[in-house]
Amino acid sequence: MAATGSGLPGPTPLDRGKVEGGTVTLPNWRGEADRPSPPPPAPLPPGERVGFALAGLGRLTLEELLPAFAECKTARPVALVSGSPEKAKVVAAQHGIKESSVYSYDDFDRIADNPEVQVVYVVLPNGLHRDFVIRAAKAGKHVMCEKPMANSSQEARDMIAACKQAGVRLMVAYRCQYEPYNREVIQRVRSGDMGAARIIEATNTQVMGPGDQWRFRKALAGGGALPDIGLYCLNTARAITGEEPVEVFARIFNPQGDDRYREVEETIAFMLRFPSGTMANCSSSYGAHESKDLRVRLEKGWIDLENAFAYEGQQMRVAQRGGKAEVIDTVRMPQQNQFSLEIDHMAACVKENRVPRTPGEEGLQDHHLMEALYRSAETGTPVSLAPVSGRDTTRGPEPSQQG
Ligand code: NAD
Fold first, then answer.
1. What's the pLDDT band for 159 if we cut at 50, 70, 90?
2. Which atom of ligand 1 is nearest to the CA of 87?
3. Whose CA is nearest to atom 1 of ligand 1?
4. 218 alpha carbon – ligand 1 mean position (Å)
5. Which of 30-39, 212-221, 224-233 has the lowest mean pLDDT?
6. Is 232 a catalytic residue?
7. Nearest to 179 by CA among 282, 64, 361, 310
């Protein structure tokens, strides 16, 4: 053992760890019976990370995304786009972003001349996504776009075409497809170990405040609870099965006399029928206390993911027969920031010139389906859809553990 000069014994190889392949590794210090701790994060040096510009400094950017960059390994924020110079100045200073890399909505196109920016992340109201994605693509930047991708399937198609023409990558920020518990549910269902999935139940509800916000204006939001939060139920049911629905049915309820629901819906319940026979019962509301849960009922058990669509607090239970008993296991996984994971995934795709797991086509398909759901709600009848053969037809390859 090497001495430290303090008279005390020096660190052992187990204490010190070592550098291997350019990263620090620390041997497992726990006993066999306990889970090993995950390896220390190995972020790239800041200068080698992919530079992101954040367009829109609202709640998602300030409360979740900018903090999440601190846990990113491959991405860093290098520019801001905002309609409020006062706000942008404060935020830029907080995150070490140069004043010269702050853009207004009007002079945003100048971002083409900023080589530090490789990706523009559009975090504006939904009705602005199309124009900003197209402007970012024309500026030669890869684009990450918040969900819902747009206000309509036509807008989504325009965005895909613009990115294709400019030769840039487009990813829709479906964070749940990068969140470890949601991924675990997908993997367990798809492994087939629990038999076929018969029924998926997905709920996403929350209670909305005052009416003077963009989420109640159809031109800015595209719709109400469905595109904003019900979309997670729809997208997750598709991601679990890997299939596309062949029939959908929906009902909408709006409380009478509530002016907030003149243009967009408050509550929607909908059903999706998949070709293999799996059916999904989904519900979403702007007027029911926060609940964001998922349950899959399979031939040989069920998987319950409480807070499936929340930012944190996922709780997973799996029920199966164990001899003469019903065994209900709780699954605990290491805590990881789902926003950091999805941002790092986009950065890795840019670095390695790969298609993201959730490209524009994934967002477009959800718009097709939401349009079918609105048609069903309007007519009061189920809507049939052309069968799509194959699995994951709108998705890129599975993200690796690293990104
Ligand atoms: P927000 O209302 O907090 O912020 C919107 C920002 O856009 C504000 O800074 C506002 O000033 C700016 N803006 C520019 N033009 C505007 C206009 N014409 N009307 C209104 N605001 C305008 O919204 P948010 O919650 O940050 O949502 C932004 C986007 O992110 C939306 O697409 C939303 O669906 C998405 N989102 C995703 C998640 C998620 O979990 N992935 C969560 C919340 C929001």
1. very high
2. 9
3. 58
4. 14
5. 30-39
6. yes
7. 310
Q: Looking at residue 399, what is its pLDDT? A: 85
Question: What is the distance in A from the centroid of ligand 1 to the CA of 322?
Answer: 47
Q: Quote the pLDDT of residue 5.
A: 82
Q: How far apart are CA 397 and CA 171, in angstroms?
A: 13
User: Distance between CA 60 and CA 338 in Å, rounded?
Assistant: 13
Using the mean position of ligand 1's atoms as its centre, give its distance from the Cα of residue 123 in Å.
Answer: 6
181 is catalytic: no
Catalytic pick from 73, 103, 121, 147? 147
Catalytic residue among 121, 178, 181, 232: 232
Per-residue pLDDT reduced to its tens digit, 290-309: 999 999 999 999 999 999 99
Taking the C-alpha atoms of residue 366 and residue 176, their distance in angstroms, rounded to an integer, is 15
Alpha-helix runs per DSSP H in 177-254: 180-191, 218-221, 225, 231-241
Question: Residue 222 burial (CB < 10 Å; 0-12/13-18/19+)?
Answer: buried
CA–CA dist 97, 79 (Å, integer): 6
**Which class for 71: exposed (0-12), middle (13-18), buried (19 or more C-beta within 10 A)?**
middle
Mean pLDDT for the chain overall: 96
Residue 265 scores a pLDDT above 90? yes
| 4, pLDDT greater than 80 | no
Cα–Cα distance between 212 and 85 in angstroms, integer? Answer: 23
- Amino acid 72 reads C
Polymer length of the chain? 403
DSSP letter (8 states) at residue 209? -
Q: How far is CA 67 from the centre of its chain?
A: 16
Q: Which stretches does DSSP call E strand in 213-307?
A: 247-253, 267-273, 279-285, 287-291, 294-298, 301-306
The encoded tokens of residue 110 equal: 């100048």
CA of 399 to the centre of ligand 1 (A): 27
pLDDT digits (tens, 9 = 90+) for 73-111: 999 999 999 999 999 999 999 999 999 999 999 999 999
Residue 394, pLDDT > 80, answer yes
What is the C-alpha to C-alpha distance for residues 75 and 344, in angstroms, rounded to an integer? Answer: 6
